[in-house]
Each structure stands twice: as structure tokens, then as C-alpha cells.
Amino acid sequence: MKETTRWHSDRLGQSVQVVRWGTFGKPVLLFPTAGGDAEEVERFHMLDAVEDLLSAGRIKVYSCDSVAGQWLVSGQGTAEQRCAIQNRFQQFVYHELVPAIRADCRSPEIEIIATGASIGAFHSLAVLCRFPDAFSHAVGMSGTYDIARFIKGPTTGDLDAATPVRFLPGMNGPALERLRTRFAILASGEGRAENMGESWQAAHVLGSRGVPNRVDPWGPDWNHDWPTWRRMLPQYLDELTREA
């Protein structure tokens, strides 16, 4: 059920690990949190949380090293480099990881659900908005949707290109029309270390551009932590992969 691979990405200038769980079903790209590697979601029992969906062949789950998030957590490089890696990481997802997922699914045009928590939610929403030809839905859990404060220095156009709340106001043309056929769920608790304002801000920008979305407040009993995300993820993946 689990398969691990690794390749060198020229875009990122390093080797990246990618892991797949499951054999059949809708492909789901589950981004790690900021500093996580491809197996973080397994160590924190996110795969256990969606085991019923995996066993039923409704989903296949993929994850990759959070290269961009690791730069933020470690503070390595200059502010300019930390901005650039956010853009390059998302380009890696689209130009390298998406083709690998489609090849694994033996379907060259299959659409992918993007999901993740915290910084993972940021990248989930970003790849949906940037690449609506590859992603059908985004499920952001406890998301941080503008990461400028983590750059710790002046931001650049690379960060704008990677951040939906920054680039959507000026987005037009066929890509926007395609994006308007997609759907984003922005879920957040209101307990310790949560910030519902991030989800509402992102939803406002999405809505202003005609992009379908939904904000789900989970209330004060749910904190910015793995137990919250283990509860959220199976609920939303069940909703999005249920047959009509």
C-alpha cells in the first residue's frame, strides 16, 4: 500500500522524497506542515484517520517533503531566497509532482485534491488557484494564507506569485474562468493558536473573484494541532469523494 520514491529536482536544487499510500481512488496531495517531510503525515497518524477511505479504494494519498516550509522554519538563506523557494516549490509540484501522480494513476488528465494543515493549507490553496487545470479542490485546515511574516525580511514578486490572496485580485483570463469551476474548503478551529481571520480573509478574496469556497468554523474546542486535523481530513475527503 505504501510506496516511496525520490528524485533530484533542478527547480529546487535538491533531492525530494515523495510517498504514496493506497492503490486506487481519487488522488489526494497531502502537504506536510511547515517543516515536515513526506512521511510526517504518517507519523502523526493522518493516514490512520483516512484508513477507511484508503481501504475502500476511494482515495490514494501522496505527500512530499515540504521544501519551501523547511526554508521558512530554519530561516536559511536571504529573505529574497525564502520568497523564491515558495514559488519554485509550487512550480515543482505542478511540473514534476503532478505528472508523476498522473503517471502513477495511469490517467494523464486526472484531477487532484490538494489538502494540508497550517502552511500545508497555504500551499493547498495556492496550487488550486495557480493550477486549476490539475487540481479540482483544496481543503485547507487551520490555514495561514499569507506567509509574509515568516519571511523575516522584504518580500518579492516571487512571494506574490505564490500567494493567492496577493495574486488573485489581478488574475484574469482563461485561468480565472477555469478556477471558477473549482472549490475550496477553508476549515479552522477557534481554540489554541487558531486564527479564523486567516480563513475569512482568504474566502473574501476568493469570493470577490467568483471562486466557489466555503469557510467552516469548528469552534473553540478545536486547537491548532494534529487531533483537529485528524478529525477534519476524513470528513472532508469523504464529502468530496462520495458518489452522487
Can you tell me about this structure?
With 244 residues, the protein is α/β, with parallel strands linked by helices. The chain has a single domain, classed as Alpha/Beta hydrolase fold, catalytic domain (Rossmann fold, 3-Layer(aba) Sandwich), CATH 3.40.50. Helix content is 45%, strand content 21%. It contains 12 helices and 8 strands. It has an 8-stranded mixed sheet, sandwiched between helices. Helix 4 runs antiparallel to helix 5. The model has no long low-confidence stretch (mean pLDDT 96).
The third-level CATH topology is: Rossmann fold
The largest pleated sheet is described as: 8 strands, mixed
CATH superfamily: Alpha/Beta hydrolase fold, catalytic domain
Work out the helix count.
12
List low-confidence stretches. Answer: none
How large is the radius of gyration? 17 Å
Any idea what the CATH architecture is? Answer: 3-Layer(aba) Sandwich
Gap from first CA to last CA: 27 Å
Strand arrangement, largest sheet?
Answer: 1-2-4-3-5-6-7-8
The number of domains is 1
Structural class: alpha/beta
Mean pLDDT: 96
Rough outline: globular
β-strand amount: 15-25%
Helix-strand pattern: EEEHHHEHHEHEHHHHEHEH
CATH class descriptor: Alpha Beta
Number of DSSP E strands: 8
Helix % is 40-55%
